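User: I'm writing a short report section on ligand binding and want a predicted complex to refer to. Could you take this sequence and iron/sulfur cluster and write out the structure as tokens? A short remark afterwards would be nice.
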Amino acid sequence: MQLAVDKFDDTLDAASARGPRHDWTRKQALALYAAPFNDLLFAAQTVHRRNFDPNRIQMSRLLSIKTGGCAEDCGYCSQSAHHATGLKASKLMAVEAVLAEARKAKAAGATRYCMGAAWREPKARDMDQVVAMVEGVKGLGLETCMTLGMLSGDDAARLAKAGLDYYNHNIDTSESHYGSVITTRTFQDRLDTLEKVRGAGMKVCCGGILGMGEGREDRVDMLVTLANLAEHPESVPINLLIPIDGTPLQAAAKLDTIEFVRTIATARIMMPASYVRLSAGRTEMTDEMQALCFFAGANSIFAGDKLLTAGNPEDDADAALFGRLGLKPMVLEDAAGRGNDG
Ligand code: SAM
Ligand code: DTB
Ligand code: SF4
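Assistant: Sure. The structure tokens for the complex follow:
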């Protein structure tokens, strides 16, 4: 037993001595992921403390600026036009309406505002409106994030110029599981957009969803792809599938909680300076599960009672949880200079 622990310590020391790594093999990542749970969590918390204040959580707020009717067939999504989910589609919101929501989010303590659209990619005719949203939200003193689907190099450059700090574009799962979840685009399409986002100088928010019928090796492969990008994504959202009636994944088997926590801990170790976000699915998590995730290195959440179309814990519930755990929301000055988010 002791031998296993020593070997694990060696692996970790080797991992951290060379700084953030981009050359993970599946075997190395799987060895971390599958280590005795106490060793894994201790290591993840150690790495976390070297890079962040362990008791501060970054808070983002989400707004769906264009809901439903999406051309893509993502098997988990309420907004795909391919699935009969009963969701009412709506048009792109007016800029002023978005700014009114962003002001409320700021007053409620958010430091980052994330705007999502149910698009395969933005159309040329929508870009002026989207750019005005970025400029307006940025002008309120919030960090800006958007998720609009695939981007051309020109779109990415325009968004960056308007002041968009982050672009969210998830790889969602492993390359080998991808085709069982989405058929209207490829894993490579996602990587191509991520490169354009980087090329335009924006920060990357990229993660995935757990509990979509994938295996442990798929979860590990997803983390290997993220950690082996030329630069680690500054934010790594880890979503727990919210099963939506009418989608192909409506009856997916529930993921073991410990597997979820292992994924968070492994992400923390492999991408030591990234914000690891405990994202969708918190309404189904106990306080104890969320506490374990924070101990494992998650240091960001979506706050507010709505995600894009699905529910999220009420502010009161999060405030009570933070009180029990002695956690504090991060303010923008905390975020500057911590992690790789400087
Ligand atoms: N259309 C854009 C795109 O797909 O990139 C942006 C919006 S999309 C809803 C953003 C992300 O939300 C997805 O990539 C997926 O990871 C996550 N997501 C969507 N539906 C979900 C669900 N039911 N459960 C958990 N995560 C979900
Ligand atoms: C991410 O990884 N999760 C957020 C955000 N990026 C855009 C979205 C979660 C969506 C959950 C399902 C819904 O609200 O429809
Ligand atoms: Fe469209 Fe995004 Fe939903 Fe896929 S996840 S169907 S791209 S809104």
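A remark for your report: Strands lie at 56-66, 112-117, 143-147, 166-168, 203-205, 208-210, 235-240, 275-278, 300-303, 328-329. The chain is about 40% helix and 15% strand.
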